[in-house]
Amino acid sequence: MHAIQLDGIAKPHVASDDGATQALLELTAIFDNASVGILITRERMIRRCNQRAAEIFGHEVPDDLIGRAAITIYLDAESYERLGAEAAPLLAAGKSFHTDWKLRKADGSAVWCKLYGKALDPRHTERGTVWVLVDVSDAWRADEATRRSKAVLDDTLDYMDQGISIIDDDLRMLATNRRFREILGFPESLDKVGTSFADYIRFNAERGDYGPGDVEEQVRTRVELAQRAEAHRFERVRPDGTVIEVRGTPIPGRGFVTVYTDVTERARAERALRESEARFRSLTALSSDWYWEQDAGLRFSRLEGRHITGDAAAFAAELGKTEAELGFEVDGAGDAHRALVDARQPFHDVVMQRRFADGALRYVRLSGEPIVDGDGRFAGYRGVGRDITPQKQAEERSQYLATHDGLTGLPNRVMFAQLLNKKVQTARRYDGSFAVMFIDLDRFKSINDTLGHEAGDILLKEMAARFSACLRTSDVVARLGGNEFVVLVQRVEDEEQVATVARKLLAAALEPVAVMGQECRVTASVGICRFPQDAVDERSLMKNADTAMYRAKALGKNNFQFYSKEVEAQSLERQSFEASLRQALQRKEFSLAYQAKLDLKSGAITGVEALLRWQHPQLGTVSPLQFIALAEDTGLIVPIGKWVLKTACAQNMAWQRDGLPPVCVSVNISARQFNDELTGAIADALAVSGMDAGLLELELAESTVMSNIERALRLLARLKAMGVRIAIDAFGSGYSSLAQIKRFPIDTLKVDRSFIRELGNGGEAGAITRAIIAMGKTLSLTVVAGGVETEEQQSLLRKHACDEIQGYHFSRPVPAEKFAELLRRHVRAG
Based on CB atoms within 10 Å of each CB, which residue in 255, 456, 800, 821 is the most buried? Predict the structure, then answer.
């Protein structure tokens, strides 16, 4: 017995047995006709292959492949060597090797094959290897398409703005996306395939998403609902305020998909809209749309829904009539709408108005499209309509608010500018003339600060009504803002006509106004600019009238001034002066002078008043009379006042460190400073300087504390609680009574200098001064006489038992070092 060799495949053969030959023929037929590719390789060469193997690699017959290097069917040398390295250990061990491998066809294209290999003789692997190949390229392409589709789906899900979750019929998670975790706040550790629906619910319940209650009961309830697998839609508000819309849909036989959308912004917008509708009653009436049809003659043939009046029966009376017959008119230009209808074209959102028999005007928005019959002929229109009357009313209200002052109802700056521009154009065309008046209420800020903003609003409304009453119906008064008004006087013949109007406005402003139980008086400053003499455009007219108004203020207020070149020059000078004042504090141009107070009984210096001085780099020493009022008007007095407080307190402590005895330093407090912030400024000054609060005296004008007594009592009580002294300055200039003064926690009365100036002249000044001194003694107050300039005045005051004096007779205001010398001399003399 011997073996027949078939390219390395040994088969037993008996020479005399015809059956062996038949077996060999059958084996060869199987090899050649197998539906899988078969290769036999040896010494890195392809020694034999069947027809299927040749076809797999793009050859017509096996001979095209036999004899080639095995590497030629691989993509590259690296692929060839890598396969050999993976297969060799298994082949040598007599085991089968199988894998999926990417090979190369004759034309260079790739082919995926499933490979099965086994050594012909494991003990002698050099004798060759038999390989079985199955072309799985189609399957690989299908798998690759599936992988790509899944990747696209995964990417799509991850980039969606909604959260997605898919659970199976056993309520276990199949898939989620990134937004699912973000919207619901789940940790990545929880969000895994296979996690049960109950675990997600339990996580929510434990962190309080469902409110108080038993956690497991909350889980059980929601799991039972989920097991029903019913489509649902609802909104859930999380504890952090996030609003989530949840939409769930069953997938028959494959589970349940749920979409989660963060609708917080939408919910917030809807809530804001509801609140807006509550504020504006015109938006609360909502009406449903209605359906309509017209015939070829544009007569209504069908009307269904809710009638614009709310009476559904009204539709019956309107059938067979056209829009025009019913009184509908296009709101605005109707040419475009008529052109569309004539051309039998669709139209959208056409606004129409209709006035009803009761006089009510209502607005509708119509949209329609043409109807054509079976032959393509025009048969009419059909469409929908909506009552938009509330929206139109809201638009008109918004337009009104945009062009009118909300407090007074007068035109505002925007509308006045529009009216003035139109007037300029008309006057240019017809050679007309008119005037613009700027009105500023004097002392308004003082009333606003002392009585409060509510009082200021009452005053502004009263002034608006008075100014309107002074004018012709053709004239216009507007409020620009704050305490500023502007008037357009039309058809001006001469200057005197304008002056007459100005005098009426001034007189109207001067009349007393009852505000919150108190009688208030204000004056007005009026600036006038005429067209075309003074300006020919809206901007210049407003600017020049404003300039003239500031000139009226500079001339003492309560007057009117016409614009002129001289007025403009003076205004520029005032603006320059104001700019210098604004920079004076930063440039350290302010200083303090100190005027001593003399005790008439002991002859000792018992106090000193700090007085503000301004050394202008160009103008030199500027009198307080020139800049204090401007500082009050502009509000600069507040930061300047804080500087005075700190500087005076610091100087007092410096004198003490130099060995001088402590003296009480007085500081004037303006009406603009007398507010809730004053205590903070005083506390800062005392803290920084280290001065005892009892050495600081605040001087307040009688008018300041009397303008709003209840407010003054509250503020003075807080100041006294700090330990500072309170003085009423210029006492006697107002109308304070003993009963009123008793209510205030004050320490000092300072007699108005106008009475001191008249002492000894035999007038009533002496009697008033004696009365004030007597009042002070009765209330145990220190009485100080300011402005003492003669020995006679001092003697009379001593005779009437006045406590202290202050004035040029004893000492002028002097720098700090001069006052120190004066105090030192008095200490030695004492």
Answer: 456
